[in-house]
Specification:
The protein has helices at residues 32-42, 57-67, 70-80, 116-129, and strands at 10-12, 15-20, 23-29, 50-55, 91-95, 104-109. With 132 residues, the protein is of the alpha+beta class. The chain has a six-stranded mixed sheet, sandwiched between helices.
């Protein structure tokens, strides 16, 4: 399942309003420099066009539950040895819709269980390995 962000985005304070699967949510964009720094430890290729956003925990869990599919569960078993509960999930990465101006989207919960730099590195490693 692809998650589409609405074309009509607007800034409210330092939040960016996005529409995910028909639900409008507040998000905060992750600093691009953080992505670049982590990417350079993984690959010598140019950083793909990536949008990385933080969502509040309730919105994040809603998105995770909406997009969870059989392939995601298989990937979790392969990577972690079991299907993870959404409660313990810090982030997800997926390919963007073709009509978007970026290739990948990383969504991170507002109150993650791991450090932000560690999460970014982990999600970018999926992109670098091409295992999406």
């Amino acid at each position: 399942m692809n998650i589409a962000f609405s074309a009509g985005k607007r800034r409210i304070a330092y939040f960016l309003m996005v529409t995910v699967e028909g639900h409008e949510m507040k998000s905060k964009r992750i600093n691009h420099d953080k992505l670049v720094k982590s990417w350079k430890t993984l690959s010598s290729k140019p950083l793909p066009k990536i949008k990385a956003l933080r969502l509040n925990d309730d919105d994040f869990i809603e998105v995770i539950n909406q997009r969870r599919c059989f392939e995601d569960k298989l990937r979790e078993i392969e990577e972690w040895g079991s299907v993870l509960s959404t409660k313990g999930t810090d982030a997800c990465v997926f390919k963007a819709n073709e009509e978007e101006d970026y290739e990948f989207v990383i969504l991170i919960r507002e109150k993650p269980y791991h450090a932000l730099d560690e999460i970014i590195l982990h999600e970018l490693s999926h992109i670098a390995r091409g295992d999406l």
